[in-house]
Amino acid sequence: MTTVLRGITWEHERGYGSVAAAAEAYRAVAPDVEVVWEYRSLLAFGDQGLDELVEGHDLLVIDHPHIPFAAERGLLLPLDGQGHDDELAVLATQSVGASHASYQHRGRQWGLATDAAAQVAAWRPDLLDAPPRTWDEVLALAAEGRVLWPAKPVDAFSSLVTIAASHGSEPMREPGVFLRRDAALEVLGIMRRLAELTPDDNLGLNPIDVADRLAEGDRFAYSPLLFGYTNYSRAGFREHRLAYVDIPAGSAGVRGSLLGGAGIAVSAHTRHPEAAIAHAFWLDSAAVQEGVYFDGGGQPGNAVAWESDRTNELALDFFRGTRATLESAYVRPRHPDYPDLQNEIGPLITAALAGRLTDDELIARLDEATERHLED
User: So where does this one cross the membrane (predicted)?
Assistant: First the structure.
């Protein structure tokens, strides 16, 4: 009798093609298990509550900031203590930066880092001799009309965090304070200048929108902060290939990029816990990540795939070119109410960049929301 596992991921070749290809390959490993994947939009991936999804699915590809809420509400099964602890220990050593640890909460492991990502920089090697490496160089290129920047609310939020942390001030580390005023003014100065020098509609774009524009024509050549998509570095995916590199250095160096990525988790409501957990560990194993998962369009979360000559050759050194950024990435607060905080303040940041809020008004509202959402 065939066991059918139902999974939910997000709508993109990186999110869906990867796991669908792996599911097909899994039939040779476990002939009595069929894994069927559905997908939701990228917006829903970041915003939709997991409590709406766990009832009808065995496997979920999720964003790590949702882990504390899901763990404390009993929505997911812990993956430690389930007969796979040796594999879990291996995956911990194969983590790209803090990706593996970002799926932990209160000493338990609630997901596996299937996909590793952070804000990085993208450029067109056929249009530039080399990408900018400092913010002065970024702004100079932007003044020439060559730069795009995704500043939709969630991405504007991510950029604020990344720029602040790369300049030595990590947001949301003090009770009731999003970012100290002097640091906030420095970061907002950079962001406002960048907004002035990029097309107005960038305030409504996400990283996929920007990557698509960069890969077309010959007007735009660079974006300083966007979540990387290795698909755009591969031959034939778009008209032109993009290369991805580390973020522009701040005063603290190449560090502090907001950690993203995606992990696979198992619903607490699954009727097939052993089969679902076994598939999750198989999916995250080094051989699968470097092989069928990557070949299906995935962006591996396993460091073995990031170090692979094959994956780097096929993706214009995407993995080696951004590894330093991933290794020193910023991990968002581990608080059950954190996703609500991000959803609330992202639109405020974009509104400020559009001129609808002053810096002082924005800083006050960021602090108020931080205190309200992240209080103990």
Answer: none
